[in-house]
Amino acid sequence: MAITQRAAGEYAIRIEKLEKRYGDTHALKGLSFSVKPGELFGLIGPDGAGKTSLIRILGTLVLADGGYAEVLGHEVVKDYRKIRQKMGYMPGRFSLYQDLTIKENLNLFATIFGTTLEENYELIREIYVQIEPFKNRRAGALSGGMKQKLALCCALIHAPEVLFLDEPTTGVDAVSRKEFWEMLGRLKSKGITMLVSTPYMDEASLCDRVALIQEGEILQVDTPDAIEAAFPRSLYGITGADTYSLLLAMRADERTASVHAFGDSVHFTAKEAISAASLQSMLSEKGFADGVEVKEIRANIEDCFMELMSGGRLADEEISK
Amino acid sequence: MRTIYFILFKEFRQIFRNKAMLPIIFVMPVIQLIILAYAADFEVKNLKLFWIDKDQSQLSRQLLSKFEGSPYFRLTQADMSREAAETAMERDEVDVVLEVPAGFERDFLAEKKTQIQLTANAIDGVKGGFASAYGQAVIRDFYGDFLEENAARLSWQPPSGGTINIASANWYNPEMDYKTYMVPGVLALLVTMIGAFLSSMNIVREKELGTIEQLNVTPLKKTHFIAGKLIPFWAIAIFELAFGLVIAKILYDIPMLGNLFLLFGLSAVYLLVVLGLGLFISTVTETQQQAMFISWFILVIFIFLSGLFTAIENMPPWAQQLTYINPIRYFIEILRSLLLKGSGWAELQQQFYILLGYAVLINGLAIWRYRKRS
Description:
Chain A has 321 residues and is an alpha/beta fold. Chain A has eleven helices and 14 strands. The relative contact order of chain A is 0.13. In chain B, strand 1 (47-53), helix 3 and strand 2 form a beta-alpha-beta unit. Chain B is elongated.
């Protein structure tokens, strides 16, 4: 219901030159980006990149030291009360009452928001039915995946227009992660704007748009496809060799631009354009002929992230300059 | 209204789901009242007496029998040597040494002036003080009796009209039963501990577990949150006071002369001070450990300066001044004078206003300090 009443703002979330310092640590170095209404936006970056600081500022929990941030058209400092009414927040750490049952936690948060479980049941139904059999169990006695579902239910109980999720899938098994993203996909179809942070690069492709952040700075903001397509060089996947010795050998070679291990394969780019065949012969020179397979592959987000981190640029940026 | 009701419901649920809570509420007061009221015994009995009689006269034996007849002294050693007495005192075998010099009887009868030496072991100051005071009392008593019985044998004139006799009566506690005095104080302590510790620990626990963060992002009002934290502990502490009073009545038959409604009314205000203090501590600490240490630090100072163990009149002037800012002092005064003396509103309103002022101040400070975001 709240969703249909949304003010037709251009942006659901907008931040400009946002700064945050903790003593000597410069956690956010003037970030700017915006999220459109109904978008599933990913904040992708390693631990310590500033993802949590950013979400806590937007969630009206922490004051920024500089810059501007607004959520649903409300400035985060001045109009924090309005934001709190309309936002759902799921912190990285399970923060519900462990000594209350599932039902009691839900009722508590429903009451605080002046609503009831029944009123917005439709929104959380799909998630809630999975934990309903345990509704009289205390939250502390739930498994990790169930805790996470409960936390999501509590964050949604008041039908928020925007949902902040701080590393919701960290420390969760692969199956539950997949399930969780499916839930987010369904919420997106209901029109909820979501800002999700994650250290897992493979989750980027599940977002509409992502911001890659590193040490308090934004490296790139775009759709996952555009980011991947903008990878500046041919990327080759090499499989079948001993990863470690291959890495050492290739790193030592001056033709190499980058070489990283990805599971059982090695991703390689050369400084100057190189064909699959010449790469194959380069490998044979180094004694990696037997059973080694070389394939040109499409860059994934992690390749792009590595490229950006090592000071490289993605193609479209170079074009635009 | 629905919110505050629900928040209270949640707090009570959590409190009673905490397995340590019921023992704290029901066992702690019983144990404290039993142990503290008995152990904090300032009465001094059976002081061990070392007797040096260098006179060996009838008069000196009369003096000894006076000491032996006193309930406070017990003759443990007798010797002629001063050194033996000092060794015994060093070994802590005796509390008091009484030395009667040679020629005691002769001088007394002939010249009306004589000396006896009373040495008290003052390692324990209270005990030493009592030993010396009791000893003097016995000697004075001996002197009075002697004058009456032996007026004829004296070569000097006893002071006419007799000596000045100071008789003391202990009002409100005629038998000088220290339990009557201690138990109201222990009750005050109990209520204070419940209030200060439980409230400060509870909020900090929410900080530790991160649950406070989940509440902070909601539109929950600050006043609702704080009321939800204060009211349950306020109710528990009031219950605790009632429970403690019942135990005090059953175990010690403590007099309850004043109006109990007034007692609970004043306690309710006092608890606002204590809970406010706990709340304030929780706003300046991040972990339960910090909250515990700071609460304990403050409470120990307050308790020592409360008049519970040491009468405020016996403290040095600077410490007496400090007690004026100690809320526990006023609450102990209220409990003692209301229960033992039957004081009413007229006598206790000063304490009431001071506590009320305190409650407003500390809670105001705590609410001001409590912030939903950093």
